[in-house]
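Hello,

Our lab assistant flagged a job as stuck in the queue for most of the afternoon. It eventually completed. Since we weren't sure the result was trustworthy after the delay, we are filing this so someone can double-check. Below is the sequence as submitted and the structure that was eventually returned. Let us know if re-running is recommended.
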Amino acid sequence: MRLMLISLSLLLLACHTVQARTITIASGITAPYTSPKLPEQGYVNHVVREAFASQGYTVSFVYLPWARAYEEALSGRFDATSYWYNSQWREKDFHYSQPVISERLVFFRRQSDGPQLWQNLDDFKDLRIGLTRGYTYTKELWALAERSPERFSVVNTDRQNLTMLALGRIDLFPVDEITGWHLAESYLAPEQARRLETLPRPLNVVEGHVLFPKAKAVSRSLLNSFNKGLNELIENGRMSELEEQLVTGFYSQPIEAGRQTQ
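-- returned structure --
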């Protein structure tokens, strides 16, 4: 009997340990970086999962609209949310990880439609700009959208914006360059995609972070573990391998139906 009780206690302790080392992260969908339909659930979430795995954690991603992913992580339902640009108003509620990605935000447009070179947003005063709800972009761009809402269209997804651009319903659309071309190749007709181009000067160059809610006591420990794991990926060369997969299009191909990664 005593041996049985000891065995049961060890089993319960083992189950508790496994459960304690599994974390749940809320994520939006931005291909090829985050999506349940892409290899390894996209580049960023692949990095996140491997960084945590190196520290003994298993990660489960839950995909939600971006605004909801943020709010539910803030409420404490999730251990973290992946991934977000830096913003002062988020810093009061979340711990920021070290950067997991650097993105170049550029304006997409139809070829020969508007100025090729621009110095400030006033150069686009006669053009209609599409924005995606919940995104950071720049303070100046959102301030302009508030002052002149008639010049802007705000929708829920990048895919909607790119389709509206191709159909001529908006004239410009700012988005990460890799994401923009991925969406164009995935969802537009070839002749529509060929008519698009990007403006040479970026709107912004931004870094993406995993956010950990300050309201949860475990967040600081998870943040430290993640940063340690991320640094190990950088130091051992694994990060360079994942970046190479991103550049060569590995994360841009939808996975086979029924085959999912956790």
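-- support follow-up --
The delay was a queue issue, not a problem with the job. The result is valid. The domain at 8-102+207-252 is CATH 3.40.190.10 (D-Maltodextrin-Binding Protein; domain 2). DSSP finds ten helices and ten strands in the chain.
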